[in-house]
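S1.2 Input.
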Amino acid sequence: RLALVAAVLGSLALLVNPAPAFAHADVHVSSPRNGAQLSAAPKKIVVTFSEAITLDSQPPRLIDGAGRTVPSTSAVSGAVLTITPSKPLGRGITTASWHVVSDDGH
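S1.3 Output.
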C-alpha cells in the first residue's frame, strides 16, 4: 500500500504557536490532512491558517523518508500556503515543513 503522508504537522509546534490568545496563526485545515495515508500522491499540499501569513526567511520544504529535500515551489495567498512538488512524489512518507509569520508580526 502506498503510504504517503503529506503535510505532517508534527514540527508545527516549533514553528507556529497555536494559542489563539496570543494572536498567532493557527492551522485550520490541511489537504491532505495531517497523517493521511493516501493511495496516490497529492499534486500539492495546501495549508490554511487562522489568519493571513507571510513566509519566514526559509522557504517551505518537502522532505522524503530518507531525509532528502524534494524540489518544490511554494506560494502564499492570504491565509493559504500551497506547496507544489516539482515532480510527482515517490512512494513512502513525505513531510512538509515551513516557517510562517502572522501578518501582525507574531
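S1.4 Remarks. The radius of gyration is 13 Å.
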